[in-house]
Amino acid sequence: MITLLALVLFVNVSAVSAASTTTVDANSIIKSSSTVKNYVETKKTVPSTVTVGTKKVTSEQYMYLLASTVTNLNKNTKKSVTVKTVSKAPKPVENVKTGTLSKSEYIKLAGKITAFVNTNGRLPNFVSTSKGTMNPNNLIYTYSKIVAFYKTNNRLPNTVSVKSWSSISKTSSEGAPSGSVQAKIDAIGYQEAKYGRAQGNSDPYVMEKIGWGDCYASSYWLYNHLSAAGVSVRIVDAIGGSYPLHRWVQINVGNGWQIWNYAKYNSKHIGATSSSYVVIKTFTG
Fold this sequence. Notes:
Blueprint: H1 2-20, E1 23-24, H2 26-43, E2 49-52, E3 55-58, H3 59-74, E4 81-82, E5 95-96, E6 99-102, H4 103-120, E7 127-129, E8 132-134, H5 136-153, E9 159-162, H6 165-168, H7 181-192, E10 196-197, H8 204-210, E11 212-213, H9 215-228, E12 232-238, E13 247-252, E14 258-259, E15 277-283
């Protein structure tokens, strides 16, 4: 009796587990891609939900389906893809130039996207490409174009064109605060001032999670948010001085490059430590 009961429980649990896993077939994903591509080009935004076969998924889930399908198609397989719970990117940013991504690059990026989702349960704030960083909405549009090409030509494209999401969508800058330029700058400044200063973390996205970072983390955080708001910004690296391994940010709102006013926002980070520096990265709004 005990053995029989255990067997019945095992079968019931297995049935529940199998029923809780939702998959969509590759052909349904491929068929839906042109609908999403056309929606973005017509509505100038990404749809909040997408119907794939008989399933309705969020745009975040759809990004995972697209990336997984591109990876599978590159391996000449049309496996079904599991519909995962995928959260939105908390702070999407972008700084991408018009150009093209090669097949080898967009295949590699698809793998990075699915790996990130599998680890973090959400879309990344951006993905770094040879043309700059791309935000999730732009990635959804780009990969819908890739899969739509496959639908028409029965093969993956050799390249895919990319350009800034602001030039595609209705919004002028994804993830940027609203209001005047100075209001945007102040909002970013006060937000950065919440983060502590300490050595041991140079990643701006880790800084958002743990609440502290070094001058590298702060500089890239400011660069990402200011450039997303359309503010001309650059990161500079000290040469000599009292702290030769220091980085800080400069902005230009029409009166030349000025040191970011860390003191105004009571930032824990500091500005220039040397009058000599080299420019590491520049965004011109």
